[in-house]
């Protein structure tokens, strides 16, 4: 209508922009303070075995209970934290909480449970990263093999000796390494040959239309074949439908993650889930372990 003249519209845009800018500023300035005030917490999402019967592992996913903005997901603050460096203390907090809780649950009787945490490129650039991980394992008492660090392909594309050496030292601690969102990065597969990777997580963008699109099926089959020939474990992300699960199982994926098996859950909810879903590993479970 006519009342919305040029000035009015300008006013509208400018308010919207102000809001966006101020939200950005609040997120940017608030991370370190939020860490001190205990505003960050973890959700846990289960990873099931191939048949979808047994809970094998969990992924820790960070959330922020912001005093003004409410519940904020990682897509809104991780890249900010990477830019301003706050990801270093935040990532350390995430790893400490995840490792501590996993150790706790293992002691409760879920003795084979393992946990994965996401590690940003920026964290690996910190020369003390490996020390920090070692200290966390020491403090929490979690065995290194029970911790998996999920790295994205962008990390591995940086051909620096320093970074490569750091990844090897991380591996020497005994922790597992996974490539997250596999297939979305630059996908020069060379790093698979040169780096001590244990697990590949197929990005959910390939899983989404897997049943309907032959292209996605071809891509996933190729990734699985590659991973098998390199002796890597394969996780399928974003499994939402039974038909996707059946196909991924038949293709040979080792682990399943997605809403079909469980959404990311807060600690209490996850503990109830664990009680219901966890089936103690059978003696032949050792065979399912990735090669040393
Ligand atoms: P990611 O590591 O690939 O984690 C999987 C994301 O997919 C999670 O989103 C999870 O909630 C979502 N997801 C899982 N199953 C399904 C499904 O069946 N359908 C759909 N549509 N989505 C599913 P979330 O928790 O929002 O995390 C987003 C991303 O933020 C993560 O992707 C990870 O890259 C990053 N992130 C989360 N926590 C951390 C952290 O502690 N540190 C770092 N550096 N990054 C983190
Ligand atoms: Mg991940
Ligand atoms: Mg992923
Ligand atoms: Mg993803």
From TrEMBL:
Residues 24-278 form the EAL domain. This is Diguanylate cyclase/phosphodiesterase with PAS/PAC sensor(S). It comes from Trichlorobacter ammonificans. The chain holds residues 369 to 660 of 1027 of the full protein.
